[in-house]
Predict the structure.
Amino acid sequence: MPLTETEEFQTATRSYARQTMRIPMLGAEDETDLARRWRVNGDEAALHTLTSAYLRLVVAMASKFRNYGLPTSELVQEGNVGLMQAAARFDPERGVRFSTYAAWWIRAAIQDYILRNWSIVRTGTTSAQKSLFFNLRRLRAKINDTGDHLTRATRTFVAHKLRVSEAEVEAMAARMSGPDRSLNAPLGEAGGGDWQDVLPDEAMTPDVETMHRRDGEARVRWVEAALGRLNERERLIIRERRLEEDNVVTLESLGRRLGVSKERVRQIEQGAMEKLRRALLDLVGDPVAAGLI
């Protein structure tokens, strides 16, 4: 469940934000000088001055993500971690402003924290899901779609903008439509059971599982008996070409192993399949109806 923030923490966060605004901004030359002193000499005072100047950037970035139900103070703390990561990795010789470089790390740290804590179920495990999570609401607001359910036009619009499938848009919208709900929560105020009591069990029942297992064992026996009616070369071809689930051998490679052409292998395979069909008919009747071939 999303964390909540007490009034005391909210007051402290506002006070912290005001303090960051009093710290002077840095020019490009100052950034470069401080970054060099830290990178080359390990000057912690330079690091402190460099990062303190952009604490306001952390606060501003955190405020953009305040609508995800997480405490702003926590977002600020995570943003500060991103700021320190940026300072540790920043190369002043590349000619890029530290503020520009740090903004990416701050945003990444905050977004990662949100994805880890917004729900007890892991969200945004792929780049497409992450893009949807942080842009779906914005894009819906852009076209004034405020309904409870996505329209087809909205799905198409979002999918096109973010280069994802409409199915992914629909799945993320459903995921974001409500908070987590405990399976142990009561169905109603009067009780009457928990939510988990009404979840369907989609697993096979013991009798169905036993039937499937016995049918599978019978099919294996029938196929093995039918293969026994083939000669060694025919069994090799059938096993390599028909019974292997992965890395099916080509006609050409089998032809080289057997010293014949690939056309001859194809002919042998067709003849062997016909023998198997007749053998299975003798054993169990119609093999197609039995689901054997």
Remarks:
- The CA atoms of residues 226 and 278 lie 9 Å apart.
- The mean pLDDT is 83.
